[in-house]
Design a protein that fits this description.
64% of the residues lie in helices and 0% in strands. It is an all-alpha fold. It has one domain. Helix 1 runs antiparallel to helix 2 and helix 2 packs across helix 4.
């Protein structure tokens, strides 16, 4: 196998790995979002998606173990949800719980989402 073929093979392997990782992350987030939606309603579901994504962003370069199991993000987002539900006056529990406590939290909903969860 020549160097070009080796590079193409390596690149294809990376693309396949990323596709699997993204698919697994999407499934984890979708299952969590659906559970929050059913139990707590659409507003908490939106906030929980934002919490999950903030936890993803805060984890930096993930370890191999973290790439294989996205559950740790769901647990961190669920901890935020628990605090928010327990202290219903909070708009965002990110200031109290996060995998990386040095990050700040935005109280504004991102402009990129226009989708509304059914109630």
């Amino acid at each position: 196998m020549g160097s070009v073929e080796l590079m193409q093979s390596t690149e294809q392997g990376c693309v396949e790995l990323v596709a699997k990782l993204v698919s697994a992350a999407e499934k984890e987030l979708a299952a969590y979002t659906q559970a929050v939606l059913e139990l707590f309603g659409s507003e908490q579901a939106w906030q929980s998606v934002e919490d999950w994504m903030e936890e993803l962003e805060s984890m930096g370069l993930p370890s191999r173990k973290q790439l294989q199991d996205w559950r740790h993000l769901t647990i961190a987002a669920a901890a935020r949800l628990a605090v928010r539900v327990h202290h219903s006056s909070l708009k965002n529990a990110a200031v109290l719980t996060t995998l990386n406590s040095t990050r700040g939290a935005s109280l504004e909903r991102p402009k990129w989402h226009q989708h509304k969860f059914p109630t």
